[in-house]
Design goal:
By secondary structure, the protein is α+β, with helices and mostly antiparallel strands. The protein has three helices and two strands. Strand 1 and strand 2 (about 60) form a beta hairpin.
Length: about 70
């Protein structure tokens, strides 16, 4: 993958896949690789209904981030 998708549904799926498949060990390293700010990604996905779970190292739908 050469760039992060702009569509929030595809973006969340792509980021979670890259983190799950251990391509990257953290959201910060993933964002560094794609030359973007983690806080910007978090804000985009929050607007789309997702929050980042530090414990699970993935974006989860709001309300499912506690489980």
């Amino acid at each position: 993958m050469d760039y992060l998708p702009q569509n929030p549904a595809i973006l969340v799926s792509s980021i979670n896949m890259l983190l799950r498949d251990e391509e990257f060990d953290s959201l910060e390293s993933l964002c560094y690789n794609f030359n973007t700010d983690p806080e910007k990604i978090k804000a985009i996905l929050l607007e789309a209904g997702y929050v980042y779970s530090e414990d699970q190292e993935q974006f989860r739908p709001i309300g499912f981030d506690e489980a």
